[in-house]
Amino acid sequence: MREVKFNLVRSFIHDEIDKDIADHKINGCVCTRVPPEPNGYLHLGHVKSICINFGIARAYNGKCFLYFDDTNPNKEKDEYVQAIIKDIEWMGFKPDKIYFASDHYQDLFDIAVHLIKTGKAYVCDLSPEQVKEYRGTLTESGKESPYRNRTVEENLELFYKMKNGEFKEGACTLRAKIDMSSPILCMRDPVIYRIMYVEHHRTGNKWCIYPMYDFASPLLDALEGVTSSLCGPEFEERRPLYNWSVDNADRFIYKPRQIEFAKINIKNVILGKRYLKRLVDTGVVSGWDDPRMPTISGVRRRGYPAAALREFINTTGVSKALSEADYALLEHCVREDLKVNTECRMAVINPIKLVIDNYDGEETLTVSNGEDKGERRVLFTKELYIEADDFMAEPVPKYFRLFVGNDVRLKGAYIVNCTGYETDKDGRITVHANYYPDSKSGTGSTRKAKGTIHWISTKKALPAEFRLYDQLIDETKEAEDAFDRISEHSLTVKRGYIEENLKSAKVGDSFQMIRIGYFRKDEDSTDALPVFNRTVSLKDSFKK
User: Fold this and answer.
1) What's the pLDDT score for residue 541?
2) Per-residue pLDDT at 446
3) Are 446 and 499 contacting, i.e. CB atoms less than 8 angstroms apart?
4) How far is it, in rounded angstroms, from Cα 246 to Cα 250?
């Protein structure tokens, strides 16, 4: 895979790293990491972290690693690991190294033993509920565990028994011995190891004790040579624990520095993995890659280009201040990319028949694929499919498409005059018209028509399914539970036709369907019935 060139917009993070380099706090090259937990698929919120971490590393000719925090085997799967790798590569980035917390379980265990030997960790028999009760509050100091002053020898013996599976799950934990009166709650003797009898997706049943994220993450950064831990604002209050873990390991000369940036919030889009997993598990969506999902795999399947996501991050910027982006801005970035990088084709998603009564035979016309994108040949015949919306028996004011007596140009072909229509017993409409032989496009004809519509010859039309997507969350609904705000109109399926030139389209190919929107050919396509997902409509609602 070839990595794309991505220039991250300059921000305060560059300034902080410049200071670290000037103060000789970075030994060698700048090194960052993207640290997902493999307990679900990546979503749009992760895009910002991916772009920032890779963007910073490349700005300093440094390295960016992909680090899997697999310290909670209850929820982690290899399926998620492979999906995350695929998503990051699709985003245009190539990790300089991929590693897992489980690669360093022995190192983390050894550091925990070192903390016990130096009197900085102890085995505690309090239950999770008691640990919470003893912790205190923001205004009240915590209370020391009755097991806090066990001897080093006793703690070592108990910790090895934990490792060897001699205690029941939840019977005890290993806690850091820091300060139960600290104003920072996470420094009040946090749990750093717990017992879990769960098969790990990589290490199997080799281990039955697992480190906590807040203990493992800083040590993994230090062990792998990460210089700059770039993360979300929720980690700011835990930064003292990050530094404590690295400092008290007593083995690192150069230490990683944690720098926080504001997460990205998108209006009416919920990005929490727990919520997204619930959508999948309850069947609201077809899977993590359902095109309605705000996951990277979902928007990829819908047809969003990776370049548009990168541009979205640069447009919203990088700062410490929380802000909310409008989804219309993301769609604007998508349209701007697709406008340049897709060719035009014709499709009819609500077909009715148009019969040109005074036209006989057939001819092949040359039509444009879009500005500077070449041309293609399409068949023109007596009978065509047009959009149902392009005819009105009783036209409203300023309606310039087909109605009896009105002239309309058929795009790339002729101007026709609507002469009438008929409706069969099933309510299907057939429109009739006559064409002007001297009105062919590209011949210099002076005949004009106010409206232009697209069409497909019934002789060469190919059946197709069109999936039209909208937001999962209905912004007009009010409820605390997001599931009570799910829209009933997030997916509309239509059966229509595509022009013959789309027969050779491959899964993943995107096109601008004239007057309808941008579409991507979906994985559900068959030879008999290709499926196209509407990525975005043509109309841009974003206001600069």
Assistant:
1) 58
2) 86
3) no
4) 7
Q: For residue 495, how many other CB atoms are within 10 A of its CB?
A: 12
Contact 383, 354 (CB under 8 A): yes
Percent residues over pLDDT 90 in the chain:
89
Please name the residues in contact with 132: beta carbons below 8 A apart, sequence gap of 6 or more: none
Half-sphere exposure of 337 (CA within 13 A, CB side): 18
Angle at 9 between CA 4 and CA 10, to 5 degrees: 130
pLDDT band of residue 507 (cuts 50, 70, 90) is: very high
How far is residue 297 CA from its own chain's centroid? Answer: 6
Tell which residue, 46, 52, 67, 68, has the closest CA to residue 16.
52
Select from 371, 306, 323 the least CA-distant residue to 343. Answer: 371
C-alpha span between 300 and 295 (Å, rounded): 8
End-to-end Cα, the chain, rounded Å? 35
The tokens describing 213, both together, are 């994220």
Distances (CA, A) of 377 to 131, 370, 438: 74, 13, 20
186: its two tokens: 């996470």
Question: For 127-173, what is each residue's pLDDT tens digit?
Answer: 999 999 999 999 999 999 999 999 999 999 999 999 999 999 999 99
State the amino acid at position 214 in one-letter form: D
- Based on the number of CB atoms within 10 Å of its own CB, is 283 exposed (0-12), middle (13-18) or buried (19 or more)? exposed
pLDDT of residue 502: 97
Q: Where are the alpha helices (DSSP H) in 407-530?
A: none
Q: How far apart are CA 537 and CA 256, in angstroms?
A: 45
Give the span between the Cα atoms of 98 and 426, in whole angstroms: 61
Residue 540 · residue 335 · CB < 8 Å: yes
| Residue 309 in tokens | 């996501």
Q: Per-residue DSSP letters for 305-338?
A: -HHHHHHHHHHH---SS-EEE-HHHHHHHHHHHH
Answer whether residue 544 shows pLDDT above 60.
Answer: no
- Tell me the pLDDT tens digit for each residue of 85-130: 999 999 999 999 999 999 999 999 999 999 999 999 999 999 999 9
Residue with tokens 């919203």: 316
> Torsion over CA of 382, 387, 391 and 393, rounded to 10 degrees?
100
